[in-house]
Amino acid sequence: MHELEVTFLGIESSCDDTAAAVVRHVPGQMPSILSSVVMGQTELHEAFGGVVPEIAARAHAEKLDIAVERALRNAGLTLAALDGVAVTAGPGLIGGVLAGVMLAKGIAAGTGLPLVGVNHLAAHALTPGLSDGLEPPYLCLLVSGGHCQFLLVHGAEAFTRVGGTIDDAPGEAFDKTARILGLGQPGGPAIEAEAKAGDPNRFALPRPLLDRPDCTMSFSGLKTAVLRARDQAIAAAGGLRRADRADLAASFQRAVRDVLSEKTRLALRLYRDRLGDSPSLAVAGGVAANAEIRAALTEVAAESGARFVAPPLSLCTDNAAMVAWAGIERFRQGGQDGLDLGARPRWPLDRSQPALLGSGRKGAKA
Ligand code: KG4
Ligand code: ZN
C-alpha cells in the first residue's frame, strides 16, 4: 500500500530540541530531506545544570509553529503539498511531547492529512535508512542522552532489544562528567574537545560489566570514578590543572569507547545468525556524533565483516527529519493514528521486554 511518492512533515519536541522537517520519498529511490529545522534550548537550561521539563515544554509550545513554518518555507512547500504529518508521541518529557502532539493534531484536523505517531527511539533506530538507504535486518546501537540499547531492527515497527544500560545512558554520563570537570553543556562535545589534548591512559577508570557474556552495560560507576580521580588530582596539585582535566576527559572517553566497542563486538557475535548473510551495524543517537567512538565501531564492524553505517552528525542528534522518515515508513505499512493519539512518557520499543526502571536526566528511560 502507499507505493507512490509521499512527502511528510515531521515534528519533534520530546526533549530539548524543537524541530520540524519535510522529507520526501519515492519508492526505489533514496529519501530526500527537503528541509530540517532544529531550534535548541541549551541556553534556557544552562543555569540549572540539566533540562528543566517545565521550561522545555513552554519553549516547545512557543517555538513549534515557528519551526513548522520555517521547515515548510525552506522546503518551498505549503501544507497542501504534504501527504501526512508525523510527530514524536513518546517516549520523552511529557510536556514537550504533548506540545508536539497537539500541534500535529491541529494540523491534521485542519487539513485532513493523515496523522502518524512515531516512537522517538524508532526514529533514531530507522535513521540509517534515511541517511544511507540501509534496509533491515541490522544491528543498531542506540546511544543518546536518555537511552542506550542494542536493537535488532527487523522492520519499521519490529525491534528486539538485546541489551542495554542498567543505569545511566552514555550521553548522560558524558554530561555529568563534563559538570564534574567544570566543562559546559551538552557534555559530549565539551568532553570530546577537551580530550583532544589529554592522555587517555593516564587514569585507570573502570570498564564495568565487560566480564559478563551478554550486552548489559553500566555507566554510572564511571562518572563516580572520575569524581574520585578529580578530587585526588585537586588534592595533589591544590586545584584542577588544565592538563589533569584534559587527561580525565580523555580517560573517561576512552573507557566509554572501550565498553561500547567490546559490547558491540559481542553483540555482532551473539546475534550473527539473525543478521542475514551480509550483516550490518548501525549507530544512532547523540553519542554517535563522537569521533573516537565512531572510529572504534568502524574497526569492530570491519573485524566482524559487517557493513557499518553512521549517519551524519546532524541526523544523530535529535531532529525531525528522522521523525518524518519513521512516519513515512509506518504509513507505508498502513500505520496511521486518529485524533485520539496520546502522548507517552514511556514507550519501550520492544514490547516483549520489561521497561527499564529509573528516569534519566533527559526524561524517562524506555
Ligand atoms: O539523541 P540526542 O540528541 O538526545 C536524546 O534523545 O538524548 O542525544 C544527546 C546526547 C547528550 O547527552 C550529548 O552530550 C550527547 O548526546 N552527545 C555526545 C556528543 N554530541 C552529543 N556525546 C559524546 N560525544 C559527542 N560528540
Ligand atoms: Zn534522541
Model description:
By secondary structure, the chain is an alpha/beta fold. It has two domains: 6-133 and 315-332, ATPase, nucleotide binding domain (Nucleotidyltransferase, domain 5, 2-Layer Sandwich); 138-311, Nucleotidyltransferase, domain 5. The protein has eleven helices and twelve strands. A hairpin with a 4-residue loop joins β6 (138-143) and β7 (148-155). α5 (170-180) crosses α6 and α5 packs parallel to α7 (220-237). The longest helix is centred in the last third of the chain and has 29 residues, at 242-270.
Summarize this structure as a short list of keywords or feature phrases.
366 residues; alpha/beta; Nucleotidyltransferase, domain 5; five-stranded mixed beta sheet; 12 strands; globular; binds 5'-O-[(R)-(carboxyoxy)(hydroxy)phosphoryl]adenosine; binds zinc ion
Describe, in short, the structure shown.
The chain has 366 residues and is of the alpha/beta class. It has two domains: 6-133 and 315-332, Nucleotidyltransferase, domain 5 (2-Layer Sandwich); 138-311, ATPase, nucleotide binding domain (Nucleotidyltransferase, domain 5, 2-Layer Sandwich).
Bound molecules: 5'-O-[(R)-(carboxyoxy)(hydroxy)phosphoryl]adenosine, zinc ion
Annotation, overall tally of beta strands? 12
Distance between the termini: 31 Å
Helicity range = 40-55%
* Overall tally of domains: 2
Unreliable residue runs: 357-366
Give the biggest beta sheet. 5 strands, mixed
Order of helices and strands: EEEHHEHEHEEEHHHHEHEHHEE
CATH superfamily of the largest domain: ATPase, nucleotide binding domain
Q: Assign the CATH architecture of the largest domain.
A: 2-Layer Sandwich
Structural class: alpha/beta
Q: What fraction of residues sit in β-strands?
A: 15-25%
DSSP helical segment count: 11
Main CATH class of the largest domain: Alpha Beta
**What topology, given as strand order, has the largest sheet?**
3-2-1-4-5
Q: Write down the overall mean pLDDT.
A: 93
CATH topology of the largest domain: Nucleotidyltransferase, domain 5
Note the overall shape. globular
Cα radius of gyration in angstroms:
20 Å
